């Protein structure tokens, strides 16, 4: 049975909501709400930019960095959805925002003509998971970052700024009150909803949710969506396996190092063949036994001795 609403965190649906020219009001609303702009400071219109900045990197294939726009003042926005915490994510986000700034030189004659860039990243994970003594996040769900002078606290160098919405930090339940909470609720819960809930019954949230209604998908669009979800699951699985293998590899390496350190401290020589055997062992229990024996063994042969030890 098809879900009523598709997951807005997938590449296809995210672009369907915010990347289409006819749905620019949804992108404008998202930017105004996440940047907390009001009155005369509100963004009134945007123009979508090309995707020339996107670089296909296998490790970053879960990152959606394809909704880029500029407002009437020339300020540029890079809006992305990041659904997996890949290695170096913070550096990549800074690189992406900086690149959007320097790439303007292709069309600008001098530095003063460069426009500011705001990177907006929606994370389906906690980028800053640390909490305070009361269990509350030190960095709130919606955070904004820019340069600050470290002695007096003065703000400056605003040319590149960053905004983050960390979805796991959402804590308003099924009754979000603020506009930021409503966006977080929509991103998190859309695929689990059967009807438009009262909290999302007004624009722009209702309109964004309606875009995800699967009944409006053509068979071809549904197939694209399904492939996107499968690719996301496969990539998440690959990341999980890589992290587990990395953890296990680090654990084994640490045990091997411990064996060698104990033997070195006791003056027991280790041949090249013995060193290779220790480093090649992939059995934690065996390495643990060798660690214990290294504390009393007079030779490397005594470390390896014993019928219970697999080679």
Explain what this protein looks like in three dimensions.
The chain is of the alpha/beta class and 311 residues long. The chain folds into two domains: 206 residues, no CATH class; 94 residues. Helix content is 40%, strand content 12%. The protein has nine helices and six strands. It has a six-stranded mixed sheet, sandwiched between helices. Helix 3 links the parallel strand 3 and strand 4. The longest helix is centred in the C-terminal third of the chain and has 47 residues. It starts with 10 loop residues before the first helix and ends in a 7-residue tail after the last helix. The C terminus is likely disordered.
Supply the key terms:
311 residues, 12% strand, 2 domains, alpha/beta
The general outline is elongated
Instruction: For the largest sheet, list the strands in their spatial order.
Output: 1-2-3-4-6-5
- State the end-to-end CA separation: 53 Å
| Rg (CA only) | 26 Å
Number of helices: 9
Order of helices and strands: HHEEEHEEEHHHHHH
- Poorly predicted sequence stretches spanning 5 or more consecutive residues: 52-65, 307-311
Strand fraction equals 5-15%
Largest sheet: 6 strands, mixed
Fraction of residues in H or I helices = 25-40%
- Average pLDDT, rounded to a whole number, is 85
Number of domains: 2
Number of strands: 6
């Amino acid at each position: 049975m098809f879900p009523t609403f598709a997951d807005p965190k997938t590449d296809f649906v995210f672009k369907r909501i915010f990347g289409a020219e006819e749905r620019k009001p949804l992108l404008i609303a998202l930017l105004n709400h996440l940047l907390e702009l009001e009155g005369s400071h509100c963004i009134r219109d945007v123009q979508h930019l090309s995707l020339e900045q996107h670089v296909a990197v296998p490790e970053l294939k879960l990152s959606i960095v394809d909704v880029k726009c500029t407002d009437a003042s020339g300020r540029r926005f890079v809006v992305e959805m990041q659904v997996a915490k890949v290695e170096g994510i913070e550096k990549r986000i800074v690189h992406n925002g900086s690149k959007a700034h320097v790439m303007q030189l292709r069309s600008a004659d001098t530095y003063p003509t460069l426009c500011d860039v705001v990177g907006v990243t929606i994370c389906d994970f906690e980028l800053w998971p640390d909490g305070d003594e009361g269990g509350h996040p030190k960095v709130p769900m919606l955070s904004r970052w820019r340069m600050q002078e470290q002695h007096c606290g003065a703000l400056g160098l605003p040319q590149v700024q960053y905004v983050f919405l960390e979805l796991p930090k959402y804590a308003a339940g099924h009754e979000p009150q603020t506009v930021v909470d409503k966006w977080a609720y929509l991103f998190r819960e859309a695929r689990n909803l059967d009807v438009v809930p009262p909290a999302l019954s007004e624009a722009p949230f209702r309109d964004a949710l309606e875009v995800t209604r699967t009944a409006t998908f053509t068979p071809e669009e549904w197939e694209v969506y399904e492939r996107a979800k499968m690719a996301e699951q496969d990539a998440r699985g690959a990341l999980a396996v890589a992290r587990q293998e990395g953890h296990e590899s680090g654990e084994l390496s640490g045990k091997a190092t411990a064996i060698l350190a104990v033997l070195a401290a006791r003056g027991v020589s280790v041949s090249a063949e013995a060193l290779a055997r220790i480093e090649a062992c992939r059995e934690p229990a065996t390495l643990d036994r060798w660690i214990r024996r290294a504390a009393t063994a007079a030779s490397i042969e005594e470390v390896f001795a014993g019928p219970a030890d697999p080679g």
